[in-house]
Amino acid sequence: MALYYFHLRDGVDVLLDPEGCELPNLAVAEVRALASARSILSADALEGLLKLDMRIDVEDSTGAIVHSLEFQDAVVITPPDA
């Protein structure tokens, strides 16, 4: 198991994950980042706001960013005329 940290960034502020999460591999961490982004977006949608300028950076135990997920890449938005 490896330790991964999921930091939320919006270009100005950073919400650091101080505890991290032990996961079997990077692929599982990537899935968790996607699920987290979609969960945040879902909660925001209930409030009537979608902030697509955020991202989740996944760091390993050495502090290296091993994955970065832009919120705009976490969903597909289809316009009404599509």
Briefly characterize the structure.
The chain is of the alpha+beta class. It has 1 helix and 5 strands; from the N terminus they run E-E-E-H-E-E.
State the order of secondary-structure elements, H for helix, E for strand. Answer: EEEHEE
Domains, number: 1
Distance between the ends: 43 Å
Q: How big is the Rg?
A: 14 Å
Mean pLDDT: 95
What is the general shape? Answer: elongated
Q: Count of DSSP E strands?
A: 5
The structural class is alpha+beta
> Largest sheet, if any?
5 strands, antiparallel
Poorly predicted spans: none
Strand content: 25-35%
Provide the helix percentage.
Answer: 25-40%
Helical stretch count?
Answer: 1
Describe this structure in words.
The structure is a single chain. With 82 residues, the protein is α+β, with helices and mostly antiparallel strands. It has one domain. 26% of the residues lie in helices and 29% in strands. It has 1 helix and 5 strands; from the N terminus they run βββαββ. A hairpin with a 4-residue loop joins β1 and β2.
Topology:
Layout (H helix, E strand, L loop, with lengths): L1 E8 L4 E2 L5 E3 L2 H21 L8 E5 L5 E6 L12
Antiparallel strand pairs: 1-2, 1-3, 1-4, 4-5
Features:
29% strand, 26% helix, 82 residues
